[in-house]
Design brief:
- The chain is of the alpha/beta class.
- It has one domain.
- Helix content is 21%, strand content 18%.
- The chain contains 6 helices and 12 strands.
- The protein is globular and about 60 Å long.
- The N terminus is likely disordered.
């Protein structure tokens, strides 16, 4: 039975800005772990008879470096300086089938260092060998986040990910499929100033008709681990099926983000 409106009843208006610009360099992917089971890209492609496992370059590949052609603005980039650009949302930036295209992608990101770029991967083991020349300790304007849906993937992916030279270490637990303990990765991986290498954690449930449940207690527990260690935390969305205080809530897609915000966990 749907009880979403009483879940977090405060009448706050969500002030969080929407994602600014999406840049899909390539489309298609292969599943990396159980978190991919209900991948929305698979669902969408299969519904139109397309093979989602074939990785193809998109027509937007050079989007950040496209320029305006006409009038007095000729030569100016179409995407303005200061844009936040979210990349590769229907693939994985480090998918092996994209190895030949990635160097050009890095070049474009370097050319547009006046923007920020954000990408998510489930393949942190491939990052180290596929960073661009001049990467050093990381590009400040590029965030590579890792996704870990349960404790098994936390234990598999974080030791690799947290050892990489990245300017930002951002962990996404989405779709959250179990309680997770970050303690070892917070205490064992420290920056030069003594703070945790993990700088940000984002959590969300699973969406779609076959969504697996997420327990709000798991979410609150991760938030507590973050708040006790000075790590920023973002409750991205509730997912379609959320257990809270022993009750199961089926939450419509359009309310999953606002209900997460109303939980008041973001720090
Ligand atoms: S890595 Fe992402 S895009 Fe690829 S199959 Fe998994 S969920 Fe889908």
């Amino acid at each position: 039975m749907m009880k979403q409106l009483s879940l977090f009843p405060e009448e706050n208006t969500d002030p969080r800005p929407p994602a600014t610009i999406n840049w899909n360099l390539w489309h298609g992917c292969t599943r990396a772990s159980t978190g991919c089971l209900h991948c929305y890209m698979y669902r969408r492609d299969e519904s139109v008879g397309r093979d989602p496992s074939i990785v193809q370059k998109t027509s937007s590949f050079n989007l950040p470096v496209r320029t305006l052609r006409s009038g007095r603005y000729k030569g100016r980039y179409r995407i303005p300086a200061g844009s936040h650009i979210f990349t590769c949302f229907s693939s994985d930036f480090f998918h092996p089938d994209a190895d030949n295209w990635r160097p050009d992608a890095w070049d474009m990101m370097q050319e547009r260092s006046d923007c920020t770029f954000f990408m998510i991967t489930k393949r942190p083991e491939r990052i180290g060998d596929h960073l661009p020349l001049g990467w050093g300790q990381g590009f400040k304007h590029v965030t590579i986040a890792v996704t870990c849906e349960n404790q098994e993937m936390i234990d598999k992916r974080l030791p690799v990910y947290l050892s990489l030279p990245l300017f930002h270490h951002s962990v996404m637990i989405e779709p959250m499929l179990s309680a997770v303990d970050l303690g070892q990765y917070i205490s064992d991986y420290r920056s030069d100033d003594g703070s945790p290498v993990i700088s940000h954690v984002s959590v969300g449930g699973e969406s779609g008709p076959d969504a697996r449940v997420c327990d709000f207690a798991w979410v609150a527990d991760v938030q507590k681990q973050c708040s006790q260690n000075g790590i920023s935390f973002y409750y991205h969305q509730t997912g379609a099926r959320l257990i809270k205080d022993g009750k199961l809530y089926n939450i419509p897609r359009k309310l999953q983000h606002s209900q997460a915000y109303k939980a008041g966990l973001d720090i």
